Amino acid sequence: MSTLTVSSASLHYGAAQALRGVSVKAEAGRITCVLGRNGVGKTSLMRAIVGHHRLSAGEIAFEEKVLDRSAAYDRARSGIGFVPQGREIFPLLTVRENLETGYAPLKRADRYVPNYIFELFPVLKDMLSRRGGDLSGGQQQQLAIGRALVTRPRLLVLDEPTEGIQPSIIKDIGRAIRFLRDTQGIAVLLVEQYLDFCRELADDVYIMDRGEVVHAGDAASLDDPAVRAHLTV
């Protein structure tokens, strides 16, 4: 069972505290969405999970193994894939080369691009020789997701996958996330500000405010006015 458990996580940047005792769980075959206003600690939480920031206190465990001080590349090898906010593709590399950077944590026999990635995002197959920087923002987001999937993740962490993306591609990304949950059994953890996107996709939701989790429940709980109040500016 591919389960991520974050327990009482705190994180500091110098004297500033970004996370305050945050506990979150993401389970295999389920989509877990973390919501909240800007600056409440969502990205800090995601980057702590994938090993880019070290916790001040608390624990992160994946598949019952405590990650503790594991480096980001060790977490990738353990089955954690990451799609960062802003995509962070390599603009001067081709689409093919960007996808092949996902080979790094894989054994030699697994160093190929699974066909289902091109079925989810056909534009990537059509543009294999195109430089990443020449793609539209939506196409770059599809490339970033495809690159993460090349690593064969059992947990996929996505930080605001719909940010700045046109509606048609948001629908494609939503279909891809459902496919990963329903047919691949991947645990999906995503940060999002697009409320309707989360309501349609999520099995479980967490809402953060000022570095803390202020609500945890199922997607239906987002229809509660008291819960939605945590998301209003």
Identify the notable features of this structure and list them briefly:
233 residues; 26% strand; four-stranded antiparallel sheet; globular; alpha/beta; Rossmann fold; six-stranded mixed sheet; 10 strands
How many structurally independent domains? 1
**N to C succession of SSEs:** EEEHEEHEHHHHEHEHEEH
Can you tell me the overall shape?
Answer: globular
Q: Helical stretch count?
A: 9
Unreliable stretches (pLDDT < 50, length at least 5) are none
What's the CATH class label? Alpha Beta
Instruction: Please state the second-level CATH architecture.
Output: 3-Layer(aba) Sandwich
Tell me which oligomeric state these chains represent. Answer: single chain
Strand proportion: 25-35%
CATH superfamily: P-loop containing nucleotide triphosphate hydrolases
Q: What fold name goes in the CATH topology slot?
A: Rossmann fold
Helical residue percent band: 25-40%
Decide which structural class fits the backbone.
alpha/beta
How many angstroms separate the termini?
Answer: 38 Å
- Mean of all residue-level pLDDT scores: 94
